[in-house]
Amino acid sequence: MFAYVRGILTHKEHTHAIVETAGVGYFIRISLHTYSLLGEVEKEAFLHTHLQVQENAHNLFGFAELSEKKLFLELINISGIGANTALVMLSSATPTEIQQAIANEDIKTLQAIKGIGAKTAQRVILELKDKMKKEFLAESGKTTQPVPFYRSVKEEAVTALVVLGLARNIAEKNVEAILKLKDGNATVEEVIKLALKM
């Protein structure tokens, strides 16, 4: 229904963004990859979107790159992978890393993602490896944005992990362990990616 949204980015967090266009603020769920590519708040933003209509909710997902949206749509068409799991996958690794893992039949890389077991990883590879080899193995540009420190790295990471489906106590435990291991020297994106692999 909505192919894309272009407007002013009024708010962004590691799991969602709000884009205002024609006086309407769209709450759009995003991956860490898209978060890293989004510009500054109060500037224009453009997101390719997918609207998921459920019985009790309408969820709008946004992607900075069309290739990430295409990968998301391929993933949610696989039995056992819903929109939340697909978003966790795209927050745990870049689209290119996921595409390469599928094309190379790298089950271990896929299994390292939270919520992806051996059978699901095998199903993803079986259903998508040919498409990945043909359509998706193009390099995608990557840029990094500075992490906003209006809240601590721990708070940001825990909040994002809870939104992505982890229980708060597990999220807090994983984040604390990672920050201790890294001597507190890690970005929110790094902490979330590592926590999703624990």
TrEMBL record:
Biological processes per GO annotation: DNA recombination; DNA repair
Annotated Helix-hairpin-helix DNA-binding motif class domain residues: 73-92, 108-127
SMART domains given in the database record: HhH1
Localization per record: Cytoplasm
GO cellular component: cytoplasm; Holliday junction helicase complex; Holliday junction resolvase complex
Main location: cytoplasm
Region named Domain I: 1-64
GO molecular function: ATP binding; four-way junction DNA binding; four-way junction helicase activity
Keyword Magnesium: no
Keywords: ATP-binding, Cytoplasm, DNA damage, DNA recombination, DNA repair, DNA-binding, Helicase, Hydrolase, Nucleotide-binding
Region named Domain III: 155-198
Matching NCBIfam families: ruvA
Entry function: The RuvA-RuvB-RuvC complex processes Holliday junction (HJ) DNA during genetic recombination and DNA repair, while the RuvA-RuvB complex plays an important role in the rescue of blocked DNA replication forks via replication fork reversal (RFR). RuvA specifically binds to HJ cruciform DNA, conferring on it an open structure. The RuvB hexamer acts as an ATP-dependent pump, pulling dsDNA into and through the RuvAB complex. HJ branch migration allows RuvC to scan DNA until it finds its consensus sequence, where it cleaves and resolves the cruciform DNA.
Domain comment in the entry: Has three domains with a flexible linker between the domains II and III and assumes an 'L' shape. Domain III is highly mobile and contacts RuvB.
HAMAP family, sorted: DNA_HJ_migration_RuvA (MF_00031)
Family (UniProt): Belongs to the RuvA family.
Quaternary structure and partners: Homotetramer. Forms an RuvA(8)-RuvB(12)-Holliday junction (HJ) complex. HJ DNA is sandwiched between 2 RuvA tetramers; dsDNA enters through RuvA and exits via RuvB. An RuvB hexamer assembles on each DNA strand where it exits the tetramer. Each RuvB hexamer is contacted by two RuvA subunits (via domain III) on 2 adjacent RuvB subunits; this complex drives branch migration. In the full resolvosome a probable DNA-RuvA(4)-RuvB(12)-RuvC(2) complex forms which resolves the HJ.
Name by which UniProt lists this protein: Holliday junction branch migration complex subunit RuvA
